[in-house]
Design a protein that fits this description.
Elements: E1 17-22, E2 27-32, E3 38-42, E4 56-58, E5 61-63, E6 70-72, E7 88-89, H1 110-114, E8 129-130, E9 139-140, H2 143-161, H3 176-187
Antiparallel strand pairs: 1-2, 2-3, 3-7, 4-5, 5-6, 8-9
The structure holds FE2/S2 (inorganic) cluster (FES).
């Protein structure tokens, strides 16, 4: 059985702010950072129980409103020289359709229901990686190495099979600048 507790629509948790979830045993502060990450920690400061949800959120920390201890939202630990830790809880952001909307009555396609995951940096490719066979593990490489490899492969393929042998399947999640680059690249050949 899932122990997830629905807290609030994402937009109802203010940026650099918090909401409090009351359980039978404790109050949990649910925080939203500047870059839209969500963290949940026990709403009680490890120093003298100050209400962390009323503190100032900066980066992935919160400054307690009572005596300004700085508490990490990632692991609940107080920043040195202070010593202490408050409990942390897992969080997740889920997307659900609006059951009252006449367009789809709450039914979402895979793209709509997973789009928010594309905004998470830990799910994104942030630098070039290559694998020369499908079975090989991906290996981080330099931009020069990856571009040289691609250029050579494209050139070989076009020389052997003609320019119509190359196509791009590009995602609707690309930004305008990304489309521009792909268009330039495709038209250049
Ligand atoms: S109670 Fe939080 S700093 Fe003192």
């Amino acid at each position: 059985m899932s122990n997830w507790v629905k807290v609030a629509p994402f937009n109802e948790i203010p940026k650099l702010g918090a909401r409090v979830v009351r359980t039978k045993t404790t109050d949990i502060g649910v925080f939203r950072t500047e870059d839209d990450r969500i963290f949940a920690v026990n709403n009680s400061c490890p120093h003298k129980g100050g209400p962390l949800s009323q503190g100032i959120v900066y980066g992935d920390k919160v400054a307690c409103p009572l005596h300004s201890w700085k508490i990490s939202l990632v692991d609940g630990k107080a920043e040195e020289p202070d010593v202490g830790q408050t409990a942390c809880f897992n969080t997740k952001i889920d997307v659900k359709g609006d059951p009252d909307h006449p367009a789809n009555f709450g039914r979402l396609c895979t793209k709509g229901s997973t789009l928010h995951l594309t905004a998470k940096l830990d799910n994104r490719l942030l630098y070039p990686e290559m694998r020369v066979t499908r079975e090989a593990p991906r290996k981080r490489v330099s931009w020069d190495e990856s571009l040289d490899y691609l250029t050579e492969k494209f050139a070989q393929t076009i020389e052997k099979y003609g320019s119509d042998s190359v196509a791009f399947y590009i995602s609707g999640q690309l930004l305008t600048e990304d489309y521009y680059v792909f268009n330039k690249l495709a038209k250049g050949h």
